[in-house]
Amino acid sequence: MKPWWYLIGLVSWLSTCNCIAHGTTVTDVSTYGFFVSFIKPALCGGVLISTDPPWVLTAAHCILPGKTPTVVGYGGSQMRRHYASIRQSVTHPLYVPQRSHSSDEVFYDIGLVQLTTIDPEASRVAIGATGYDQVQGVTLGMGYTGLNEPEADRLQSAQCYVAESSGSMLFIISNATLCHGDSGGPLLAWVDDHYVLVGILNRIINAYDPDTNNTSCPVRQRLDKPMDNAFVKVAFHMDWIVNTTQLPAQALTASAQTVLLPYSISGGLKVAEKSITGLVITVLCTVLCNYAP
To answer: What pLDDT tens digit does each residue of the chain (293 aa) get?
Structure first.
């Protein structure tokens, strides 16, 4: 059983590609319709912050020259349901894409990817404001499921706790293990009745790969210290996101304004998304019909 991770100071770079071992398989395809998986040539996660135009937020090291994916999957727990090609990718201008003992590159390990087209079924997630320390969160990924284990064939989720933030970084505690293939995946917090995006995974601290030619899940570098997960704080980079996407901050932080309504299909329950406007019209029609002579 993997130990719990506790917050430690931000230390030197140890791993650039981080799936979730001991996570929970996501069965409801509509729950995280905003999750994106970069599947060719490198495996990484991402999240849709806009659908018109379609923009994905991910880690900068996932989209470096020579590693930039050309195809992504999105739209539910099985990432092969829908595919999209990439129009352009942009890394943060202050990101330093080389291995070093400087932590500066970690702070800016964030990137944006614009897709060519996207299916109307896909959804977006709102970017959360600051102030999400000491809250419960959720991480998502489709990387490796354990040391020397295969990649996940369905989206995995894990509950976590946002222990503390440090400038532009967030650190989490969880009893699941993040692995290669999870980089760029989101850290989500539940606010009111919807998820908000608060972080992007970019590092596993105090970790190394036992076999660099066959990477799956890293192991602890020091047995007296647990592995930690570091996320870039998305709100810290809001100005850069706005300038790059040319989308107003109000649009990026607004909730998707959808209500989840169950309906029966072939004897089972499925979740459907209906807009607030549609729901109001439905209620008004019901009331008028009930009072019709």
So the answer is: 333 333 322 222 222 333 344 567 877 767 888 998 887 666 788 999 999 999 999 999 888 876 666 677 776 545 556 788 899 999 999 988 765 444 445 789 999 999 998 887 789 999 998 766 667 888 888 766 556 565 667 788 888 777 666 677 666 555 555 666 678 999 998 888 888 999 998 876 666 666 666 665 666 666 776 667 788 889 999 999 999 999 999 999 998 754 332 222 222 222 333 333 333 333 333 333 333 33
Q: Are 247 and 55 in contact (CB under 8 A)?
A: yes
- Structure tokens, 40: 């060719």
Helix (H) or strand (E) holding 157: strand 156-166
Which residues make Cβ contacts (< 8 Å) with residue 221, sequence separation at least 6? 14, 206, 207, 208
From residue 130, how far is each of 35, 127, 172, 191, 253 by CA, in Å? 22, 10, 16, 12, 11
Find residue 293's DSSP bridge partners. none
The pair of structure tokens assigned to 151 is 């990649």
Of 167, 39, 165, 170, nearest to 113 (Cα)? 39
Domain parsing of the chain, residue ranges: 20-253, 258-290
The whole-angstrom separation of Cα 138 and Cα 134 is 13
Distinct helix (H) and strand (E) counts, the chain? 4, 20
Q: What CATH number does the domain located at 20-253 have?
A: 2.40.10.10
- The token duo for 115 is 């897709």
Integer Cα distance of 187 and 189 in angstroms: 7
Q: How many residues does the chain have?
A: 293
The secondary structure of 198-227 as a DSSP string is EEEEEEEESEE-S-TTS-SS-EESSTTS--
d(CA 205, CA 227): 6
